[in-house]
Amino acid sequence: MKITGMVFYDFDDTIAVTDVFRATHGAMDMTGYDDQFFVDAFGDNKRIAQLEWHFDRLKVRGVKISIISFGWNAVIRESLERVGLADFFGEDLIFGNDSKLMLEREGIKGEVIREQIRLHQYSFDRVVFVDDNKENVGFCEKEKICQTLHVNHEGGMNEKDLKTIERIFH
Ligand SMILES: [Mg+2]
Predict the structure, then answer these.
(1) Looking at residue 148, which CATH number applies to its domain?
(2) Structure confidence at residue 82 as a pLDDT band (50, 70, 90)
(3) 3-class DSSP state for residue 64?
């Protein structure tokens, strides 16, 4: 399928409704956490279904989705797996703090996005970065890297945020 754009999501407090990194004290091994912990981290089953619908909607429109996070790759992957959302994200499209690209770009999310845009030759209006962190969003705005959506409230992306993103790729 032809790729028509890309969305980069932050993980903690954006896809997740909580800060998983902080809640687990930066742990890399999630085996001690039960499934309910992960459902709670994504809100509840209703929100997980909303996320699934949202990601699927973008997928059928040829939009690639990616995660850029200060959390660990393995933790993000496991969190997504435990709630059945992992298949939407290719192995090479999760950029945790310990990913090669994040290390190369010294943890500057906007630089990771810039590199991906250059690599895939996307245009400004077909790339969106979503994050609850104002600094991360501000960098992309200042540098005119891509479109941004600042999640300026607690509890991660809500229905309105999801719709805002979907509308960009109508
Ligand atoms: Mg966050």
Answers:
(1) 3.40.50.1000
(2) very high
(3) strand
Domain range for 40 is 5-168
Asked if residues 3 and 61 have their Cβ atoms less than 8 Å apart, the reply is: no
Question: Which residues have CB atoms below 5 A from the ion given as ligand 1?
Answer: 10, 12-13, 132
Query: CA-to-CA distance for 148 and 55, rounded, in angstroms?
Result: 17
Burial code (b: 16+ CB inside 10 Å, e: under 16) for 11-20 equals: bbbbbbbbbb
- Note whether 97 and 77 are within 8 A (CB): no
Cα-to-centroid distance, 8 and ligand 1 (Å): 12
Structure tokens at 103: 């290390």
Domain count, the chain: 1
Q: Measure 1 CA to ligand 1 centroid, in angstroms.
A: 30
Give 35 Cα–ligand 1 centroid separation in angstroms.
21
Backbone angles phi, psi at 145, to 5 degrees: -80, -45
pLDDT at residue 1 is higher than 80? no
